[in-house]
């Protein structure tokens, strides 16, 4: 059976995240979703991030609705998750996380493990042609589908 790894913070869950997850599940049903721990999710961000439990529920609910299956979600405390100790056929990444996938394969090679095929999913663009991002959503610039939100007076 084909085994796939995909990971992220997934908050707020947006169309870019959904494309990443769809791509993973289109490769096979045995998908390990690495969801960043609270410490990892907040460590590199200045904005507030929902708790692991809230993010896990959002991803779980979406996968169940979209694919009709119970997802396998695991908490990760580092950028590598289980990819340095388990065999995977594919790792699905965004342009932002592509360098991490390259590093994973370098470490796997040093450990004598077979490389993981990297599937890079391009950014989903908002209606202004820029990538949909959680930061842009949280800042009220776009919604989770990339639609531009009306600016309030004084925001200019």
Give me the CATH fold name. Rossmann fold
What is the H-and-E element order?
EHEHHEEHEH
- Strand content range: 15-25%
Structural class: alpha/beta
Helix content: 25-40%
Q: What count of structural domains?
A: 1
Spatial arrangement of strands, main beta sheet:
3-2-1-4-5
Give the CATH architecture.
3-Layer(aba) Sandwich
pLDDT averaged residue by residue: 94
Global geometry? globular
What does the radius of gyration come to?
16 Å
- The CATH class name reads Alpha Beta
- Low-confidence spans: none
Sheet bearing the most strands, described?
Answer: 5 strands, parallel
Query: CATH homologous superfamily?
Result: HUPs
Number of helices: 5
Query: Can you count the beta strands?
Result: 5
Organism: Methanocella arvoryzae (strain DSM 22066 / NBRC 105507 / MRE50)
Function: Reversibly transfers an adenylyl group from ATP to 4'-phosphopantetheine, yielding dephospho-CoA (dPCoA) and pyrophosphate.
EC number: 2.7.7.3
Catalytic activity: (R)-4'-phosphopantetheine + ATP + H(+) = 3'-dephospho-CoA + diphosphate
List keywords for this structure.
156 residues, alpha/beta, Rossmann fold, five-stranded parallel beta sheet, 5 helices
In words, what does this structure look like?
The chain has helices at residues 15-27, 38-43, 52-67, 98-110, 134-138, and strands at 3-8, 30-36, 72-76, 90-93, 117-120. The longest helix has 16 residues, at 52-67. It has a five-stranded parallel beta sheet, sandwiched between helices. Strand 1 (3-8), helix 1 (15-27) and strand 2 form a beta-alpha-beta unit. The protein is globular, with a radius of gyration of 16 Å. The N and C termini lie far apart (53 Å). Helix content is 34%, strand content 17%. The chain has a single domain, classed as 3-Layer(aba) Sandwich (Rossmann fold), CATH 3.40.50. The chain has 156 residues and is an alpha/beta fold.
